Amino acid sequence: MSFTETEEQQALRAAVAQLGAKYGYAYSSAKARADQSQDELWAEAGQLGYLGVNLPEEYGGGGQGMYELAIVEEELSAAGCGLLMMVVSPAICGTVITRFGTDEQKGRWLPGLADGSSIMAFGITEPDAGSNSHKITTTARRDGTDWLLSGQKVFISGVDVADNVLIVCRTEDARTGTLKPVLLVVPTDSPGFEKTKIDMDLVAPDNQYQLFMEDVRLPADALVGEEDAAIAQLFAGLNPERIMASAYAVGMGCYALDKGAGYAKERTVWGGKPIGTHQGIAHPLAVAHIELELAKLMMQKAATLYDAGLDIEAGEAANMAKYAAGEAGVKAVDTAVHTHGGNGLASEYGLGTLIAASRLMRIAPVSREMILNFVAQHSLGLPKSY
Fold it and tell me: Which of 49, 130, 237, 320 is the most buried (most CB within 10 A)?
């Protein structure tokens, strides 16, 4: 593993940073307060080839990997305008379809995901299951050659801007009668498919929804991959999710830290010296920087392992990266706000909304407690605790 990015990766990073600077926090915040999505940024990022940088070239993508897609997310987030649906549409859904979809399915869905003209949401969480995906009860049953899908999902991002949702559900095994997981692509305009917006105490341009599905009729080819291999297929999409969530959190932390350090260099209170000359201000900022860099290294390791096809090793690293990035992002935001004092909560300084947004990185898309369970069991060999 090299700790120096290639010239292509450096060029990508610089170009995305330039795009992020064009939009920035003011744009993102204004969109969030107006209950609007970041449509202009999404469209331009798609036109420039950034959204689909990880998808195959033959379907309009960049032919690169998760490392490059994480660069895009990190730099946009560091500019104050991260794109949450990048975690979902090209990373989770694009990856699953690329790896397990038929040629027809790839041709139908990947070009739109690559250029951003189509968005695919992802539905796994259910009201009565929470983090326990083994308790999912949304069920697809056969009706001739079709599927009939019924159930509920909750906290599903971006359904209002999505054309389709990749739904994790269960189907009955014809031999044993037991339920096994499958992945179905559901158009959001399907009869029987309804969404309800969840009111959130969160200033963000992406909305959360609860989904209700009652006998939603889907064609046979709505199934992505094999019925008997859906668990492996599902986790192939969850590793990219964790890597991209890490990039989002690291970028957010870098944005906040840049604000905090900049303020500490300029703000004077005692003796005409910047407050950053005092260790009580400087040291917490330095600690936040160190922890962000450590989280970024683990994120890059996870992405490198994933792009090398090492799914098991990538899974461990991706979970660790998500934990570290979530913690580092929260600390960076908290430190930056505290450095500003009361100004940290004033709208003009562009930090206050990140208090709740950074906290979300500890909870979603997987909580830190579930990551610790994973590490304890799979990395340390301890008995399963849940």
Answer: 237
46 CB neighbour count, 10 Å cutoff: 21
- The pLDDT tens digits of the residues spanning 167-185 come to 999 987 655 556 678 999 9
- Residues of the chain where predicted confidence (pLDDT) is lower than 50: none
C-alpha 16/C-alpha 82 separation (Å) is: 11
One DSSP character per residue, 60-104 reads: TS----HHHHHHHHHHHHHTT---HHHIIIIIIIHHHHHHHS-HH
DSSP helix/strand/coil, 190: coil
* pTM flag (> 0.70): yes
Fold of the CATH domain 7-118? Butyryl-Coa Dehydrogenase, subunit A; domain 1 (1.10.540)
**Residue/partner pairs of 227-235 with CB below 8 Å, 24 or more apart:** 227/171, 227/180, 227/182, 228/180, 229/100, 230/168, 230/180, 230/181, 230/182, 230/183, 231/181, 233/96, 233/99, 233/100, 233/183, 234/96, 234/124, 234/168, 234/181, 234/183, 235/311, 235/315
Pairing of strands 179-187, 164-172: antiparallel
Architecture of domain 230-379 in CATH? Up-down Bundle (1.20)
Rounded Cα gap, residues 329 and 19, in angstroms: 22
Let me know: does 239 contact 363? Beta carbons within 8 Å.
no
Quick one: CA torsion of 363, 258, 251, 61, rounded to 10 degrees? 160
